[in-house]
Design brief:
single chain; Maltoporin, Chain A; 5-stranded mixed β-sheet; 55% strand
């Protein structure tokens, strides 16, 4: 354990235990209902369904009113499931896939959505976080996570698409916990987990305190953990030092009057961990001589990450119905990694054919490795925006309300180490939403102008020099929802994302910048099954066209790349009763690579699992000796899918088998034992039946294994 982690982690844990020792009397608060949440008696156990979402429209709208799908993982959901990073959390949302939780992957921290590339995660739906941070975001820092489905560049631009064809599937938006004027509150948590070849200790604190006679507030959220991952249990990485990580997110808010509020959010992160890029897969299990709990890396192969983010903001109520929001962010990330990769034979070689048939190498060795990959980079990410939201209410008119949004914004990014080009993006979003009787209409368009500075990058043919270049893109969308009766909503939308592919090169030395296009058509129905329970069904099709295709040396040959993704999604979210809450989601997806000839195995295949299901529920015992004890459980299912090489099909034997992962948990207030009702004991088992499965993959030889069964015990309290 390094000194920085020791200084943060030990005091956090000590503070929790020390406070518990002196908590003899119950705090004067309502009964503890859910994992430390203090709720008014008679209210729902927790909120798995939010009252409103903002990342789909830049305005706060009820999710049932939107003509598109925005899935939300609320603060209650995050606290109950105790995820350790953003990837760990998003596994609960079917239809979202990761390309591997490693700094060595091409786009670390990005996710595919609905079978297509998604933009990199953002803060508050508008501030992209850059390469790498998404790997290390601790969800305890978040108030909620919103996932907007489908191409939404009409709202925020193709933020992740400067260097690759991402942004067609949707976006992940993170909302940091921030200072609040609603009152003082402190939450303390400690969690210890252990299983075969793995252990983790986490400490967390969240404290919001008012200042300036209630006109201001300061909030500090902090986490620290030490983790021994299962993949260092054997093989060449056996004995590697543990992962050490901490994060601190201070924020402040000040009200300068009824109409003007200032604030600042910040985030400081540090992670140092053993490197890992996964193992080869063969017929659903590790191939090439690897076991489930080993890696090709050596004990001294490490990944190191640190970042700093500052986000000042201001809200100004200019007049009744007119709000101006100002925001800017600066995020500086620094990372380095040294990784020994699993061996990969060349495509089309006898050796690869042998491996696909047998799962072993021609050499007869237990396992083989490629050379080392060693890199480092510093990324600078700057963004600024001004959002004007003008709301109007009409009486005795066909149009009852109107919300008009205009947002100009600017972003700049640079990176050392050849992992990014200095690029500026100037964008403006114009959107209108209005209600007319049972109808709600939403339409908008965004235009982006990109300026890429000249730069040099090492390639197979030596150093390539790229001249400065500029390009434009226009992305429109439109949608409508119909609510003929209170419990029924019918909705649909058409949206398109266009983003130029910068940083490319033809063999003749020219630099193409043509934009690729992704168009989605979506329709769905929402039914209110109970007072706070909604069932949503959505059907979609996304067509991605004009994508560049490359030759064997990485030069652009043409723009004939074309693919399609269609599917259906089903979700049930909310409260069945005041004591029983549920979030159940299902996705079916079919992906087609139209550049592959009809009848060939790589044209339409399970690039991602065709069927994914997630069920999570919690129940509070409302009477008797176990009053206010909360029990919960979850089930995640993924159907069979195939490992790929740069997204292309390789062989039938390189596959991931279907998997079922079950979790159980319980929260027991100290009041059950005659103690303070604002303290609680938490117990849980993740991966109850010790399913062995792969959670994500970069290529067929770099597949990351899911965690084995782990037992958890913890303490939490609110003051």
């Amino acid at each position: 354990m390094n000194e920085t982690t020791r200084k943060l982690g030990v005091p956090l844990t000590a503070a929790i235990l020390a406070t518990a020792a002196f908590a003899d009397e119950p705090a004067p608060s309502a009964p503890t209902a859910d994992l430390g949440s203090v709720l008014v008696e008679g209210s729902a156990i927790s909120k798995y369904r939010p009252e409103s979402v903002s990342s789909g429209s830049f305005t706060d709208m009820a999710p049932e009113a939107l003509p598109l799908v925005v899935d939300t993982l609320t603060d209650d959901f995050i606290r109950e499931h105790n995820p350790t990073d953003l990837h760990d959390l998003l596994r609960y949302v079917p239809g979202i896939e990761s390309g591997g939780k490693s700094l060595l992957v091409r786009s670390p921290g990005q996710f595919s959505i609905r079978g297509m590339g998604g933009t990199e995660p953002t803060f508050d739906g508008i501030l992209p976080i850059g390469r790498g941070p998404g790997l290390f975001m601790d969800p305890f820092l978040m108030d909620r996570i919103e996932i907007a489905k489908g191409p939404i560049a009409a709202l925020a631009g193709g933020a992740g698409s400067v260097q690759n064809a991402s942004g067609a599937g949707g976006s992940v938006s993170m909302f940091l916990k921030s200072a609040s004027l609603d009152g003082d509150k402190t939450e303390l948590r400690e969690n210890t987990s252990f299983g075969k070849n793995t252990s983790r200790v986490r400490a967390m604190v969240d404290s919001n305190q008012s200042t300036a006679e209630g006109l201001g507030a300061v909030r500090v959220v902090a986490t620290a953990d030490i983790h021994d991952p299962a993949y260092t249990a054997s093989g060449s990485q056996k004995g590697a030092s543990a992962r050490e990580s901490w994060a601190v997110a201070p924020s402040a808010v000040f009200s300068a009057g009824e109409d003007l509020t200032f604030g600042i959010k910040s985030l400081f992160q540090y992670t140092e961990q053993p490197s890992y890029i996964g193992v080869p897969v063969w017929r659903g299990r590790p191939g090439g001589g690897y076991s489930w709990d080993e890696s090709s890396c050596r004990p001294d192969d490490r990944s190191d990450y640190r970042s700093m983010m500052l986000f000042p903001w201001a809200d100004w109520r200019v007049a009744d119905g007119w709000l101006l929001k100002f925001g800017a962010s600066m995020m500086i990330s620094e990372w380095s990694q040294r990784t020994r990769e699993p061996y990969t034979p060349g495509i089309g070689t006898t050796e690869l054919d042998w491996y696909c048939r047998t799962g072993t190498w021609l050499s007869g060795k237990k396992y083989m490795t490629s050379g080392f990959s060693e890199s480092s980079a510093i990324m600078h990410n700057y963004n600024v925006f001004v959002r004007s939201v003008h709301d109007t209410e009409f009486e005795n008119a066909v149009v009852s309300s109107n919300s008009f949004v205009v947002q100009p914004d600017y972003g700049y990014r640079s990176s050392s180490g050849g992992f990014g080009t200095p690029t500026s993006r100037y964008g403006i979003t114009v959107q209108d939403s209005f209600a007319a009787g049972p109808f709600t209409f939403l339409a908008g368009v965004r235009t982006d102008h990109f300026e890429q500075e000249s730069y040099s990058a090492a390639g197979r043919g030596g150093v390539a020099r790229y001249p400065s270049i500029s390009a434009n893109a226009v992305s429109p969308r439109a949608g409508m929802s119909l609510r003929p009766i209170d419990w029924l909503v019918i909705f649909g939308n058409v949206s398109q994302t266009r983003t130029p592919m910068l940083g490319l090169r033809r063999r003749d030395g020219t630099t193409p910048d043509d934009p690729w296009r992704a168009t989605q058509e979506e329709a769905g129905v929402r039914l209110r099954a109970a007072e706070r329970l909604w069932l949503t069904t959505a059907f979609y099709r996304i067509d991605q066209e004009h994508v560049p295709e490359f030759d064997n040396d990485g030069y652009v040959e043409d723009y004939d790349g074309e693919s399609a993704s269609h599917g259906a999604e089903l979700s049930l979210s909310g409260d069945i009763t005041d004591d029983w809450t549920v979030l159940a989601m299902y996705s079916w997806n079919e992906y087609t690579d139209k550049t592959v000839p009809r009848g060939s195995p790589g044209r339409s295949f399970a690039r991602y699992p065709r069927n994914v299901f997630s069920l999570n529920t919690s129940y509070r015992i409302s009477s008797g000796a176990l009053e206010n004890v909360v029990i919960g459980g979850g089930w995640r299912f993924r159907s069979k899918s195939y490992a790929t090489m740069r997204g292309s099909f390789v062989d039938e034997n390189l596959r991931f088998d279907s998997s079922h992962v079950f979790d159980v948990n319980a929260t027991i207030p100290f009041s059950v034992f005659g103690g303070a009702d604002n303290w609680a004991l938490t117990l849980g088992v993740r991966n109850l039946f010790d399913e062995r499965y792969f959670e994500s993959a970069r290529h067929y030889y770099e597949c990351l294994v899911g965690e084995p069964r782990t037992f958890e015990i913890g303490l939490k309290a609110e003051f």
